Fold these 4 entries.
Entry 1:
Amino acid sequence: MGWEEKQVRGYPEFVQTAQRYHGRPIFALFCGDKDAEGRSWCPDCVTAEPVVRKELHNMPNESVFIYCLVGDRAHWKDPNNEFRKNLKLTAVPTLLKYGTPQKLVEEECFKAELVRMLFTED
Amino acid sequence: SVQVHKEDKPQKLLEMNGHTSAPHSYDYDLIVIGGGSGGLAAAKEAAKYEKKVMVLDFVTPTPLGNSWGLGGTCVNVGCIPKKLMHQAALLGQALKDSRKFGWQFTEEVGHSWMTMAESVQNYIGSLNWGYRVALREKKVTYENAYGEFVGPHTVKATNKRGVEKLYTAERFLIATGERPRYLNIPGDKEYCISSDDLFSLPYCPGKTLVVGASYVALECAGFLAGLGLEVTVMVRSILLRGFDQDIANKIGDYMEEHGINFIRGFVPIKIEQIEEGTPGRLKVIAKSTNGNQIIEGVYNTVLLAIGRDSCTRKIGLEKVGVKINEKTGKIPVNDEEQTNVPYIYAVGDILQDKLELTPVAIQAGRLLVKRLYAGGTTKCDYVNVPTTVFTPLEYGACGYSEETAVEKFGEENIEVYHSHFWPLEWTVPSRDNNKCYAKIICNIQDNERVIGFHVLGPNAGEITQGFAAAIKCGMTKEQLDSTIGIHPVCAEV
């Protein structure tokens, strides 16, 4: 069956999507919003995204990859935003395996080896 | 004693399958068997010096099927979850004390085992993952596979699917640690749990019998009782063998006065299941160590904490000629952690006559690797290592116990200074005013040098760490006396 991708924006949409696929392996990449030309305000996210996408085929069958935009820079910097409070995110980009403590943060996302390890680890 | 052989350099010979006299290049510079405190510290250190390192870590599931991730005993089923659960129990006590300090809450406070266990396991999971990332980033090869020697310079790694691979290395480090011992009585493996199972138990253990008088037994009994469970400790003879017995008895008395039952002088001879469940109900039949008296008791959970056995008997040591102590399973090493086989080293709990503590394994592992690959000369100092027992009344110690000091120096040559103290924080909530205790043991013949430090009271670990450094520097009683105290803290005593 392979894997599928869902693109969401904002915390409520993320949670809703994650809950819909409960029971399947869920991986999520959190990035800053993109402007009209498709560029993110977060330079590290720009670097990380292609690295992560190149490794997606390593996810186990039936996986769901959620690509989640967290909002504009101001919203992200607000210490009370729901991503920080509820998901305990500390930085973007963050790549995580939902429901586990396994995650990669910032420069860790640039390393194909680590991304692959996150997708294939059991 | 162990003879030190100089390693054959520069030719490394592989004598297998009839190959002879050909200089050989190995798969790895160093293979570490065991991914715990000692093994990981050594592996990461070796990677710093650009060595090609592999770590083999594998957890043989407990009799009840429990297993865990990379990091060894300390991280998964030892120090870390223990201290967190001890803290959970302390917080329970703090909640009780808080009313006397003016906090007002009307409901009685209850405890959820599941919430605590889940938080603890989550934290441990993040540590397991952290080690995976650290090893990968440092380019240390890690395999979740059971390593055993099959011939000179060669190990076989078997993963959980049974797939076998062979690897060779110039040097090996054995860091396989220990696992809890069972009683070898009917029902022990089927119905009892050990510390390997306790910290991830998916249900509240309920009324618990702890068998054993080790620090593991007393620490677990302590926090289980602190969480509100009914706890009984069954002790064969003395408490905390190897520790200062004066203090061990004070710890036992304190626990007893605070609701933990002790059954002294008995050992279980049979465990029966009365009722299945999570938890179920178990009947324990025990016999006196002094006579023929038999007693019975019913508990939800039986936790065995009677000792730990080294994982050295099934890793093929005989195939490479590494000598172990047949009786204890421990590996004798010289003061450079080298076994009788020159290219095979060992660190951690499996070492004979060395302290079984995480920081000791880490230090020994790091210094060993520095000596092997970075021209280091420092050897691990196993003397005056501080330690703390996290019983309800914490106990920190460094150096000689009173009885070993007497044995070594003679009673007339040592002076013991001691005092009880009442932590200021305990006064308002009217907690015990005569239980906390501190003593130092001094060597009269050596300028009254402090050779033993013992403190029984809150935050004992934090207090002891500083004193350990002072003892290492050779502090004398006079120097201690002339150090002005911080007020108001327990440590000023």
Entry 2:
Amino acid sequence: MQGSTRRVGIMTDVHRRFLQLLMTHGVLEEWDVKRLQKHCYKVHDCNATVEKLEDFINNINSVLESLYIEIKKGVTEDDGRPIYALVNLATTSVSKMASDFAENELDLFRKALELIIDSETGFASSTNILNLVDQLKGKKMRKKEAEQVLQKFVQHKWLVEKEGEFTLHCRAILEMEQYIRETHPDAVKVCDLCHGLLIQGQSCETCGIKMHLPCVAKYFQSNSEPRCPHCNDYWPHEIPEVFDPEKEREAGISKSNKKPLRSRQH
Amino acid sequence: TTTMSAAVSHTRSYEGVNRKTAKKCSSYQAPLSTVQSQRDPLTKVTGMLVQFLLHMLKMKKPIVKADMLKVVDKKYKSRFLEILKRASFSMEVVFGVDLKEVDSAKHSYILVNKMDLPNNGTVSCGRGFPKPGLLMNLLGVIFLKGNCATEEEIWKFLNQMRVYAGKKHFIFGEPRKLITQDLVKLKYLEYQQVPNSDPPRYEFLWGPRAHAETSKMRVLEFLAKINHTVPSAFESCYKEALRDEEERAQATGALRADTDATASECCGPCLAAPPTSSEVEADSSLCG
């Protein structure tokens, strides 16, 4: 931003509608966010030029700042898609979930979260999570019930399920990064390149450093001999491709068809 | 008024909050604790209350003061009204949502969403409630019958729409429960016994939430549209609706005079979007 004094942005109905719709979705991919932005202009101010997305969002964030909320941009861990979510900055707990879930359900989430963080792959099996059902705070929960609660987490975009295993939804990573770092300071993994929280990624088999798949993709792009940035040993894993929104649109690949890169290369 | 403007406009006296997240993958931001201490202590608790209100917006239930007080730290309880004022100001300016008191004795409030999202802001899989189309029709019938319609008149109207008591409708569910209980609980309708009626007969009136969220003119516009005519065709009702609009304009004008000049800079056009039942959201999957 320019200078030391910053003008707080102007909110119009375009911005308000955008904010509300983004909130409704929880998290959105960049392409959808751009469509949403254009739509909001169409509804409220169809003659205006659509502002560049980054500026548009910075504008809104300058107003949101005093409320300890911000529109945060992140990247999906498996295939590097840019995503946006409205995130609470002042909370130090799973509070955004607290309003939708009961005490024992929140505790189930915390247990699943711990298993995910401690795991090598960033995935926790359904069985292992359900085995912790007896340790939950609050009302007693049966395994059958817990299975449904896990599905509820998936529906609300807090967890993602792949072949009977669960990991954090990109929304949860965006929203809870600070909370996760504070509550699991020792167990938490961090990407050697971007220093962001790491749940899924690739690791060096020699020195053990880890990197996000999209970070690996960018770092080793067009590098025929990828080497670990830390110990210089040969990087043994398949290098993913850098996410290209243009290529994706042209190929008309729908989300359901696209196979996200699996991060089982540990 | 300086406290109000402080909530929304302030000069940034620091740099360094990283907005260039484009370069990093989910980059870690250090907690804003150093900045927070420079701020007015009410800012944070206002933020908490706003987040609570945003959650209640989803719930579509009336909000009571007691619940709001739970969100506010004990040490700020004495400044609750000030915090509430700031929070409702932020809700209006930032999100386009009004906090309105519907019952001053019970300290209950509702949130009126001026953004007028289709499906009441819920995304496709949610079953939005109440069903706007039916409610508007009911409010219309009540208005046309002189602001009070007997239960018989309401059922005559509903039957014409092939909605029958006891018969579960695929959109509305069981209609009798919907209109005599659910919509009453949500304060959209009032259902009361006709005075001195024996055997007891019942009548419907607009509830306080209907008065807050819509207006006689809007309902008339809706009726006109579905009857392929114009509001002024409903002569006496039109006059009444015009009077109602005038009264509302005067009431709003008095409130606006209170707000800060700074507020109006940030506010922009805060007018409620007109109800567009034919509003086609570009992508219904995205926009509800």
Entry 3:
Amino acid sequence: MAGTKVQSEVPKTRQRPIVRLGVLLISHSLLVSVVCCTAGVLALLLLPVLAKNTYISENALMPGSASSMLSNQEVSEANKLIKDITSLYSKPSTAAIESRRLIAQYMSNLGAEVNYHKFHPQPNEFHPLHFFSSPDAGMIQENFSCASYGVNTVGVIRAPRGDGKEAIVLMTPYNSVNGDLQEALPLGIAYSVFSLLTQVTWLAKDIIWLVADSQYGEYAAVAAWLRDYHTPVFSDLSSLNTELCHDGSYILDLKENSNLERKISYEFRRSGTMAAALVLKVVYRNEVEDTLSIFAEASNGQMPNLDLINIVNYLAVHRQGYHVKVEKVWSLLNSKWLKILGEIFESLGKFVKSLNPDWKFGIPVAEYIEGTATLASSLYYQAIGVPTGPHGAFRDYQVDAITLEISPRVSFNNKDRRNDFLLQGGRLIEGVIRSVNNLLEKFHQSFFLYLLTSPSKFVSVGVYMIAFALLVAPLPVVAASLYAETLNLIPTSEKEKSAADDELGSVLRSWKWLNSAKRVFIVHLWGAMVSLFPYFISQIPNCTPTTNFHVWFLLSVFSLVILKWILGSPFSQLCGLQPQEEWAILKSVTISSFFIGLCLMSVINFATAEIGALLMVPTSLMAHPLKLDVRGGRFLRFSRAICNLVLGVISFPPATFFILKGMFEGYSGINAGDFWNWVESLWAWNSATYLYIGMVHLPCWVLCVHVLLHPC
Amino acid sequence: MYGSLGSRSPVMLMFLLLCTSIAFSASAETTLHTNNWAVLVCTSRFWFNYRHMANTLSLYRTVKRLGIPDERIILMLADDMACNARNKYPAQVFNNENHRLNLYGDNVEVDYRGYEVTIENFFRVLTGRHETAVPRSKRLLSDEGSHILLYMTGHGGDEFLKFQDSEELQSHDLADAVKQMKEKRRFKELLIMVDTCQAATLFSQLHSPGVLAIGSSKKGENSYSHHLDSDVGVSVVDRFTYYTLAFFEKLNMYDNASLSSLFTSYNPNLLMSTAYYRTDLYQRNLEEVPVTNFFGSVMETIHTDYAYKILSKKTFEKVKIKMPSEEPVDHNEQRSLQNSNVQDQTSDTKTEAQQCPFTSTWNSFNKKMEKIENIDSLVSYGLLIMLPLLLISTWLSRFWSSDETNGGFGGMSNRCK
């Protein structure tokens, strides 16, 4: 608006085109926001159509160019290991120690370097100051109990002619306490590959096989091992620490089998930087065909390089004949509106093709629905920022890792079938390792920022950014237009008065947004407090999640009231603001702060920002005092009030959670504690989404509700 | 040129000196084809470019088998696949999945390896501008009678060839280097063979006479690998090189297959690209030029039982090369080719005799010597003659060297340094 002032003073100088464009956009803010928001939602729905086929970007990888060397000999050895381990289950008291020793012995017999890694599981606690800090900083175990500890078994094959500066990690979680055949099968696959790799001459990177003790959770075991791998300790203090906890049975074991134990030490064995890590699991889920599920999401929506998924997908589909799956939102598959949308896109694609056969647009309905379901799940798992498997621990150290979950067609009890299963799985792992072995540098050639719409299709950052950009574009425009309107709103009578008034009045008026900014700041401060409450609430012993949730809710409301009482001074009366312009300026500042928050979040975790924008942008743009709408009595205004109420309910975080949960999992058995549990998982995994909800989303919602209920 | 002669006996030196000093005024085209050189360059690094090293080593083996000695081959390999940790067969390189032939055997002399293979070093080799410390074995010591084969393989594009994943050799650079070589009389004829994508574009700037160029693909075309060795896990040879090698495998040192038969042997369907050859700078008819003029060596080596006999035997008379009984594909054409070739050689001798008056007397002298049956006496006779000749030659060479520094050659070599 400064521009118009300049024009009035010096009429001959024309404004710059960019300024004129800005003024044009601001003056048509309603149209801009409607068009942009619609286009943003539409662009998001179009993403499955715009998805590209994946391709292997790095030349060095050459997956599948070498024929598999894994033979029945290795498989029969692996079968022997499985048989030995399953026979140990009959004596549950010693099974844990015995199976560990058995695996170590098998590894050692192959000529690998073997060591045990002892770790103490860390309880999931809320560390308010540990967001974004690296996991090893200050996470020194202080008061662990000697009774609970896990032991990882680690085998290292040194590359015969490699430089020992790089390694590939193969990880199999193994619960030594209550194991069954399903637990032993990944060990069998990994062992068959491991025994082959001890013989080959083509290794350029060391191979580390980590049998993670998963009795305290798979993630904790891997994270502990990775932490120790990356923080070498040079004093004897730590070893002393672990020695203190040696219980009697251990020393007995040492004496018994000293020959073997001398080879297998507690000394930590390391190799170089990790090029890639594969987590191998086997489940039995009554599949129609042999299925391989890929899990890739790590903390805060970080993904491994797309090339890693590509080579696994390529080898699994084209070499081993697996059916490859990634996570999907299953309930979306049957949704009617998606089907209709898919049909529209398909017919649109046909129409475009009839115009010009070279234009490829549109995909079949079934493919669209599948793509949308996969995209939604990809977006959701990236947005909550919680890793979908133990591979997440690797990503914290910038190691590309994925979890492979193999589910066979028939049960494992069939002996012949089991051999085939081991051979198939082993060949897949061998192929991936050989391909990664060819790598010269870290994975860097392909995408890190992408959403999957199927195992072989992806949407890259350049495409999905558009949807987000369109959604947030109206925010600054509307904020500016609201502010501009309040400047022009000053009634003429007041204008005449102010002409005679001193300068103070005009200064105050030009700074009147400061009052609203203060209010917005207070609410954001409150948001920070709300995010800190769970730390104290979780200290209360013996509480169910439901009571925790209620306590949290009450505390939040109470603190908001107190804050308003203390800090909310009637400043607005001081500078003579009309209530009419007060809500407009408040909305303008709210929208600006929300815009900044969203943009910051999109850098940290794009998916969170996208979902947050979907929920909150319409709410914040529509917000309008209900009193004014109801008073008017016209239908349009009334419908706006209803829209505002609905949006206001939907975008309240707990309400959003319960609505979505009810939609996808059914409304039966929902209780208030679920939300507490969900939030607990967020902070336990140091997810930035938690910070977003507490410090951006919730304050914005409160401010919007404040605008809705504004007494004007 | 004088450098290469320096290793021989003073007699020869003096003799040739006289001949060449007379013949020098004649243009380079009439210069005799004296020796063969090969510069074989693999420009790409990394394990997945295994096939480029295999290409180069296969060609190295072929030209060596066809008679170019190691000291006249400059082999540049940008990476060492044989010792790569990913190589399933340590210290071996194969160009075929049957693994019958190890290209990285005992007698492979790599002159420039690894990070030494740069565009700078490549140009230094071509133009002969080395630092003083560079050993002779790493220099291209060709002369104006040399036929040079320049083979390059790697990743190329429109008018460029990538070196080491960091530099690019452009067609202008190559043309400039060739022009410098021509001016410095470093070759008589030059065959440039390039196996890259869009190889033909690399020749577009060449202007120097006597240059023949062949590339694996035209502009806009890719050159493909021939097959994948699933045991080693990489592609082991490129199509163009594979079919070039297939052509040469049928030949031996004495075969007279012409260059045109090589050039027409490339089948675009098998190559999956169109082999392109540029002949407008080359004077001779391709059908009359045997491939061994570039891929082999025409140095006439005469086997003698006795070490000293070589002195007396050394003449410009061409030794008749025995033709093999079985001849390659085109019988009639080959025969005519051979005939013309023989004619060429005899006419060469004739002009040489005219140009050099000493030759005839020398020949008759030779014949006389051959008549002497007692070899011991021949030796003593020869040694006795050598003494005064040695004196004369040293005197002459001193005279000549002072002459050179003042004279035309000196000025020229100064300019080119």
Entry 4:
Amino acid sequence: MTTQFFDEANVVGKTFSGFGVDENSLISILGKWNKDEAKTFRTITTFFIQDERHFEKWLVEHLDQLKREFLRFQDAIVLWTMHPWERDARLIKKALTDGPKSYNVLVEIGCTRKSDELFGARKAYHSLYDRSIEEDVASIVTGIERKLLVALVSSYRYEGPKVHEETAKSEAKTLYNAVKNAGKKHPMEDEDVVRILSTRSKHHLESVFKHYKEFSDGKGMEEEVEVYLSLKHTVECLSTPHTYFIKVLEEAINPDADEKMKEGLTRVIVTRADVDMKVIKKEYPKKNGATLVDKIEQMANGNFKNFLLTLLARGE
Amino acid sequence: MSTLTVPAQVPSAAEDCEQLRKAFSGWGTNEELIISILAHRNAAQRKSIRQTYAETYKEDLLKVLDKELTNDFERVVKLWTLDPAERDAFLANEATKKWTSSNQVLVEIACARSPQELLLARQAYHARFKKSLEEDVAHHTTGDFRKLLVPLVSSYRYDGDEANMTLAKTEAKILHENILKKAYSHEDLIRILATRSKAQINATLNRYKNEFGQDINKDLKADPKDEFLAILRATVKCLTCPEKYFGKVLRLAINKRGTDEDGLTRVVVTRAEVDMQVIKEVFYKRNTVPLDHAIAKDTRGDYEKMLLALTGHRDA
């Protein structure tokens, strides 16, 4: 076998790692290998195992991974083309099905969409599933975050600039006290915490979070509630959504990411491409050294990669 | 069915405005003329009249009514002239500002309207009060009342006719268990009443009656003085048999010493174009007196005339 062959084998091995599939390489390499080269490939690669009956058998886990990686482009296209209302409704349904580890998607949608967009998702959910979002969230979520999550997906926040500073200050104090009292009462069980975070307008909350720092020696609320995941995500999504989305991207790109976390890459890019992707792209390198575009070049393949890069380039 | 009567040949909005202007001009006000016009126009027509009046005379018709009319007559005409969504927003805001635990207006708006009407009311609330309905309800109510009312006003129930019988069985059981334990504000009890579709709730409550022998509202009468139970019963009634609920509000409003004009006005104005015909039938069945007789006996003057006109009394 020539060095060229081993180089090619390397390329094929890499085509399925990361995100998506390098279709062109697969076509040009696999399409031309002869039987010997194909057999050698099966023998040397870790995708196959020598079976007792004397053939190289494809590892089932790898076939499953292949399926997922081939589908990644399709899913991205479908998600992108969908009406945003249907998109959010389906994302919510999936998060509920996937379980507690995916409940951050519920917070994400409940907090980062405009009021009419969130209501649109509620309408689409009716059409798709013959149920309301709130009834499903209320009956499926059983943990301590239930109250908060139901309230977040039911909100229809005022979006005007009017803020009552006195109220904002007093509500900041209420939140601060609830956090200080966390040892005695879980902050997500605190009715006022849920009330303030799920009903107040975003401008009002901006003021609330600002005043919060006056009570906490400069520490932001999201720092102080780090251990309460849903609460932390809520505060982040309501104050600096791009910080939250960058974390989701980092988690997705992490080599230890499982499939659900990897899906975050598509979801964030598709749903934020026309919203705050500029800010996300700008802030991303500050913690991560490389730019988001570079990371995607590195970790994604083929059509999937090209599609993401195209979405990232929108508006430039 | 509506009791509103609109003339076969409806004058144009411009003609109506001219007449209204005449009714306001000079000393005093021609109340009969006002009633003869406004009490016989549907919501779309009244909206058109308001718009035309503002364009023609550069004045908001509602402000003029405020100036020219007084007392109960003023309130009934003003409320009637408002768009249903604005009216609900106004009534809801009034209810939160002077909220007492016997106030059932919020329950009426959250449960006796269709999901779409509730959404429109929430939008109107934003526009008029620069706040969200749920933030005001959350801010002005406390304890168990808040636990129930906030989810109720935030709901966007699925509006289909299908009901899941297995779910009805499970949830009837949950309701019953909590009622037996007197856990009236239990999360699951509130969850069911605040998020399930009306069709589903109907199925569940029918199942409840079949399985446990009584209407749920009979079981919720355990303590006749408990105001939270009263609100729960109102919730159930508004969701399942609004005509009976409103028939009762009317009966209590009229029988009270001196008549509770607020309740009387509110029911007539909010139901005239919806189901006042059925409410009248329910009222007669329960009280052996036709509604218009009861109204005529207990009210006077222009207020009485307006109410009679809206409830389809022949001579009005």
